[in-house]
Amino acid sequence: MAKTYGKNKWALFLLILAGIVIGSFVGYLTKDIKILSWLNYGMDFAIGDVDKNNIVSLNLGVIVLHFGLRIKISIGSVIGAASSIFIYKRL
């Protein structure tokens, strides 16, 4: 019997992450180029604010844990994620 392999969901997840990182990097690199500066336009979503020292803390006496999460979604990262999904479907 021959094994048939389907598309791997982990490969899709990693490819989307790579597309997001590469897209946001390209957006960052082109932020000073007038015609391509729109690739860096985006929104920040955060739990806690590191700049204002307003992060979620848990003080257990011996251990102090600080929690924070910041996600910046830019047009470049959305284009990178969409292109990675397109590439995955073409494989």
Short description:
This protein has helices at 9-29, 75-90, and strands spanning 42-47, 56-59, 64-67, 69-74.
* Helix content class: 40-55%
Q: What is the makeup of the main sheet?
A: 2 strands, antiparallel
Structure summary, number of beta strands: 4
Strand content: 15-25%
Count helical runs: 2
Q: What overall form do the CA principal axes indicate?
A: flat
The side-by-side strand order for the widest beta sheet comes to 1-4
Instruction: List the helices and strands in order.
Output: HEEEEH
CA gyration radius, whole angstroms: 19 Å
The overall pLDDT, averaged over residues, is 85
The low-confidence runs, each spanning 5 or more residues with pLDDT under 50, are none
Polypeptide structure, described:
- It is a single chain.
- The chain is α+β, with helices and mostly antiparallel strands and 91 residues long.
- It has one domain.
- 41% of the residues lie in helices and 22% in strands.
- It has helices at residues 9-29, 75-90; strands spanning 42-47, 56-59, 64-67, 69-74.
- The strands form 2 sheets. Strands 1-4 form a two-stranded antiparallel sheet.
- Helix 1 runs antiparallel to helix 2 (75-90).
- The longest helix has 21 residues, at 9-29.
- The model has no long low-confidence stretch (mean pLDDT 85).
- Pfam families: DUF4321 (PF14209).
- This is DUF4321 domain-containing protein.
- Keywords: Membrane, Transmembrane, Transmembrane helix.
